[in-house]
Automatic annotation (TrEMBL):
<dbReference type="GO" id="GO:0032259">
    <property type="term" value="P:methylation"/>
</dbReference>
<keyword id="KW-0808">Transferase</keyword>
<dbReference type="InterPro" id="IPR029063">
    <property type="entry name" value="SAM-dependent_MTases_sf"/>
</dbReference>
<feature type="domain" description="Methyltransferase">
    <location>
        <begin position="63"/>
        <end position="152"/>
    </location>
</feature>
<dbReference type="Pfam" id="PF13649">
    <property type="entry name" value="Methyltransf_25"/>
</dbReference>
<dbReference type="InterPro" id="IPR041698">
    <property type="entry name" value="Methyltransf_25"/>
</dbReference>
<dbReference type="GO" id="GO:0008168">
    <property type="term" value="F:methyltransferase activity"/>
</dbReference>
<protein>
    <submittedName>
        <fullName>Class I SAM-dependent methyltransferase</fullName>
    </submittedName>
</protein>
<keyword id="KW-0489">Methyltransferase</keyword>
Amino acid sequence: MAYKNDPVGAAIQDYLQGDKGATIVVESNLTENDEIPVAYLFRALDEMPELEQLALEQCQGQVLDVGAGAGCHSLVLQQRGAHVTALDISEGAVDAMKQRGVQRVQQGDVFKLEGQTYDTLLLLMNGIGIAGDLEGLGRFLEHVRQLLHPGGQLLLESSDILYMFEEEDGSVLLDLNAGYYGEVRYNMHYKDQQTGEFNWLFIDPAILQDYAAEYGYTFEVLYEGEYGNYLARLILQSA
């Protein structure tokens, strides 16, 4: 099956059909091109970083795995008996998860979900990046209030990428006219397919804490990695 403007989905499908060297190219306005080996999207529990393993342990009740990709996190939760729904906007990824045995799979955009409620929303691999920018972060936190049961939680991974702007002497060089430094532009390629440019957000924990408070969530950092990445839990407070 051909997938249009779905480089991630097409790469995942090729991997499933035997191309174990499939690689997605990521362009950004911040750094040189990067590559994602598609094999990484198929990692097993013992291959996952400690942050991800902790996040999976913290999942409670009905779980929505947002941006589920090839379904590696959903499969672990499913094997543990959790009620998990895997959500991805990529048609190829959704088809792959069904092939891999994920029981509840949904194609769609989390910003457009209505009429569904969960105890946990899981956003790994810098998943909160789907907010795009600070304005989008506010929209996201407001929107997902309706997707969470009272006392429900967001478990999300992000990174403070301020270190990428450090000079050799340790000072930080920022263009104060360029907006928040964690707002990045991406384009993803695989063979003849590309996403086109899109916005992706890396949010430092101090600002995320401010946004959480503004939109009615408690905030705590559960894990901090070596390169500015962290796992945060936001719990929806009762009205």
